């Protein structure tokens, strides 16, 4: 279920004051202009149904993630992200098919990003920006149904205050852009449960497909996007004891498209797991589809 958390956090990563291409699933080092805002809405649908157990677990998550960013200074930008989830887990229990579900707002994430290094040249720029954030337990984490308390992966919130940190590198030219990110999320315990900490390494290439040559008066651009996300999650802990059927390492590949104008972007991508080395009977991801838009103002 680390993919659910990742999908929510992905919506934090926003581009510059003037819309350029940017990663779909993680951060960019391009700034938000001073005194300006950027709004992002992202729809996410996730299918997590590769279950090796007789329970035949089948989970679907639909989410809408709202993000607002503000450029405090030329180098410092602040972001707030609030997701809404509709989660459903179908499974067999006691020889019967059951469904457990929950809808509602998730946990609020607040993040600051600072441009620590910048090198500009004609037609290109290179930037490095560390970031630091906190996730507040604003989502419901103790919901239940007729079968009892919902499992943590079906809750819309975690109940814990968690910290995240990392750094992102961006190299941008007139024809393409390369982004790379390393991040770490430290999860704390709540209600006797602690999700495993997550380390992630990301890479993205955005290449201009149209127009093939730049000229005066071109109002918009079409970019092809290919991204890779290597995610390692530690085992969850229940009552202080590690769960052997949680955690592991997954490599995702995400092809996508972006249509970019001077003030807004529309984008879509499909995140596909190509390697899943998970522990025990941990539920594996099938795919995740994302689509959304960004507006600078």
Helix content: under 10%
Shape: globular
Q: Report the strand count.
A: 19
The string of secondary-structure elements, in order, is HEEEEEEEEEEEEEEEEEEE
How would you state the average pLDDT, rounded?
A: 91
CATH-derived architecture:
Beta Barrel
User: How would you write the strand order of the largest sheet?
Assistant: 1-2-3-5-7-10-11-13-14-17-18-19
CATH superfamily, by name, is monomeric porin ompg
Please give the radius of gyration in angstroms.
20 Å
Biggest sheet statistics: 12 strands, antiparallel, barrel
Structural domains: how many:
1
Unreliable stretches, pLDDT < 50, 5 or more residues?
1-18
Question: Separation of termini?
Answer: 35 Å
CATH topology: Porin
What is the percentage of strand-forming residues? over 45%
What's the level 1 CATH class?
Mainly Beta
- Class from helix and strand fractions: mainly beta
DSSP summary: helix tally: 1
Question: Could you describe the 3D structure shown?
Answer:
By secondary structure, the protein is mainly beta. It has one domain: monomeric porin ompg (Porin, Beta Barrel). 3% of the residues lie in helices and 60% in strands. The strands form 3 sheets. Strands 1-2-3-5-7-10-11-13-14-17-18-19 form a 12-stranded antiparallel beta barrel. A 3-stranded antiparallel beta sheet has the order 12-15-16, with no helix packed on it.
